[in-house]
UniProtKB/TrEMBL annotation:
Organism annotation: Alloalcanivorax venustensis ISO4
Name of the molecule in the record: Rieske domain-containing protein
Keyword Iron-sulfur applies: yes
Residue ranges constituting the Rieske domain according to the UniProt record: 3-97
Domain of life according to the entry: Bacteria
Keyword list, A-Z: 2Fe-2S, Iron, Iron-sulfur, Metal-binding
PROSITE patterns registered for this protein in UniProt: RIESKE
Pfam families named in the record: Rieske (PF00355)
Residue spans crossing the bilayer: none
Presence of the UniProt keyword Isomerase in the record: no
Length: 100
């Protein structure tokens, strides 16, 4: 099932859009022209990632400063933590997610 999140027209750099689908809390990020969909809360300490900074493909959690690769989910500097990522799908003008 396709869940609409936002229209592509409405994306802008710096966007952090928290969404809830069923029991899943997700965060849509748009930065430097790239769009990412990840779990909303940091896998380290559950800190909400809306205020995370993103540089290139690296997300820095404002909680304790751990950095995660947005392309692989791997944590830099602390093993055992992995940021869950979701595949983004498109339906006409909409960005959404199908696989949760
Ligand atoms: S809660 Fe994100 S680094 Fe600790």
């Amino acid at each position: 099932m396709f869940h609409r999140l936002i229209r592509t027209l409405d994306l802008y750099d710096g966007l952090r859009l928290p969404v809830q689908i069923g029991r899943e809390e997700l965060l849509l990020i748009h930065e430097d022209g790239a769009t990412w969909l990840v779990q909303r809360r940091c896998p380290h300490g559950e800190f909400p990632l809306e205020r995370a900074s993103v540089r290139g493909e690296v997300l820095r959690c404002p909680g304790h400063g751990l950095e995660f690769s947005l392309s692989s989910g791997q944590c830099r500097g602390a093993q055992g933590y992995c940021l869950k990522r979701y595949r983004i799908d498109y339906d006409g003008p909409w960005i959404g997610v199908s696989d949760l």
